[in-house]
Amino acid sequence: MKKFIFSMAAIAFASIVSAQTFSIEHEIMDETTEGTPGNNPTEEAVTMYNHVFNESDAPIENLKWKLEEVDLPAGWALFTFCDNQTCYTQSQVNQFIANDSEVPFFTIAVGESSELKPQIYVPEYADDGVGTVTVKVFFYTDETETEIAEEQTATFIVRKGNVGTEIIDMKDERVAVFPNPGNGQLFLYTDLSLDARSFQVFDLMGRIVLTGNISDETTSVDALSLQTGNYLIKVIDGNENSITTRKWIKK
Coiled-coil intervals in this record (predicted)? Predict the structure, then answer.
């Protein structure tokens, strides 16, 4: 009898999971700051407003998020991180990072959304550079939580000092990556008007895993050596300025 009840519960859980789907409003967000006086982090932190949307016809009750990577220059801090339950403090966020924690969202009703909002503290006296925060949003196939049914990532980038700004935004069709998701080979399209000269591929830890030159509108990139996962592709012009960044998923 107990086995039958457990089986029915597992079937019910699987049915709920199969009906769930969500989207993230911005896969990549990119902000630039000159830094702030450093007197009041609550008021001065760079706040990046993003959302997770319930795209299904049922409430999502088992969605979680996890900080995959936090790479900030010296003197910066991930001051808070907010979802639809609360804004977690810097000390709580540090614990999440240290413990590799998976943090549950509150139930997201049909047609509703949750905040996915970091606040990054960048005092003017802190080091210049580029800070990156990557968060994974996901849910499991069943209550054993051994296999992920669906996952998406959001990457938040903050720049300070003489590190350059993106020349075009992330929706500009003059740069494209295809197929996306893809397997061993990807193609990088860059309009000739952008004077793109090179590219860099970053993993979620911020490490450069591939580089190459751009000499034509369409560049073939051999990605066979890369592991399955999410990557960022930065396109660079002849003056070493970052033209734009694109997200690519390897299946």
Answer: none
| C-alpha distances in Å from residue 215, one per residue of 182, 219, 243 | 22, 7, 15
Cα–Cα distances in angstroms (integers) from residue 251 to residues 26, 57, 102, 184, 221, in the given order = 21, 27, 23, 9, 15
Task: Give SS3 for 243.
Answer: strand
Q: What is the pTM of this model?
A: 0.69
The band of 107, judged by pLDDT with boundaries at 50, 70 and 90, is very high
Q: What is the pLDDT of residues 122-145, one digit of tens each?
A: 998 888 888 999 999 999 998 899
Measured in whole angstroms, the distance separating CA 139 from the mean position of its chain's CA atoms is 16
